[in-house]
Amino acid sequence: MPALKIIIVDDEKRIRSSIRHLLEMYFPDSEVLAEAGDIVQAEQEIRKLKPDVVLLDIQMPGGTGFDLIRKLSPVNFKIIFITAFDKYAVQAFKYSALDYLLKPVSPDELVKALEKAKQQKQAEEFTLRLDTFIGNMAGQNREPKKIVLNTQNTVHVLNLSDIVRCEADRNYTKFYLVSGKSLLVTGSLKEYDDMLNPSGFFRCHHSHLINLSYIERVEKQNDQLVMKDTSMVPLAVRKKDTLLQLLQQI
């Protein structure tokens, strides 16, 4: 398999050099075609050299990495974003299923992201994911409103308010929606618990994650929740007190 052709785009030369060094040390199956320190230079290099992957800083002189993407649309290469830590941006990246690396870049995370990029046959539904990210970053409180979910054959964008509950299904997760439909999605329930917990979801049982807004009632005697779609969900005894406290705060 030919080496992965990469362009590094970051306004700090120190960071570009560090990433190049990490690639030489930990990902020899790669070739750095060029480096760029601003949007103008990056656009020129990408158009000329046609990389497989662009490691792209978000904040740069003359605009953002997203501005660059719009100039190059439609995108026919993979993109891995590089960002300084920002809890809102990181949360939005996760909800939008976009690949990202935090500065300072970890060798393990870099290798993992590039291995994933190698397995992708094309820049899958990138515009859809990017639009979801930008929408989630908009607004005053910057709380994500949408999530990107992958089923076996399709990528779905859902409003969080459309999700009633989630249920573990081996290494997959089943999402139950307000419409009555369900989606079997790649990823474990733990992954979605970590992601959705800050947005009003609660892991009420080792196999169940619920949207607190859709609880109809709590049946304390038999430790069950009745949801507004009439579904019944078990409530772990050790989770009962925490749930009741949360419901008092709503």
What does this structure look like?
The chain is of the alpha/beta class and 250 residues long. It has two domains: 4-137, 3-Layer(aba) Sandwich (Rossmann fold); 146-249, LytTr DNA-binding domain (OB fold (Dihydrolipoamide Acetyltransferase, E2P)), CATH 2.40.50. The chain has helices spanning 13-26, 39-49, 65-72, 87-96, 107-119, 126-137, 189-196, 237-249, and strands at residues 4-9, 30-36, 53-57, 59-60, 63-64, 78-83, 100-102, 146-150, 155-159, 163-169, 172-177, 182-186, 201-205, 208-211, 215-219, 224-227, 232-234. The strands form five sheets. A five-stranded parallel beta sheet has the order 2-1-3-6-7, with helices on both faces. Strands 12-11-10-14-13 form a five-stranded antiparallel beta sheet. Strands 15-16-17 form a three-stranded antiparallel beta sheet, with no helix packed on it. A hairpin with a 2-residue loop joins strand 10 (163-169) and strand 11. It is elongated. 28% of the residues are buried.
Shape: elongated
Instruction: Point out poorly predicted stretches.
Output: none
Residues in helix, %: 25-40%
| Number of separate helices | 8
Query: CATH topology of the largest domain, which one?
Result: Rossmann fold
Q: Rounded to an integer, what's the Rg over CA atoms?
A: 21 Å
Quaternary form: single chain
Question: Largest sheet at a glance?
Answer: 5 strands, parallel
Structural class: alpha/beta
**Averaging pLDDT over every residue, what do you get?**
91
Helix and strand pattern: EHEHEEEHEHEHHEEEEEHEEEEEH
Strand order of the largest sheet: 2-1-3-6-7
- Strands, total number: 17
Distance between the termini: 54 Å
Q: In percent, how much strand structure appears in the residues?
A: 25-35%
Could you give me the name of the CATH homologous superfamily of the largest domain? Response regulator
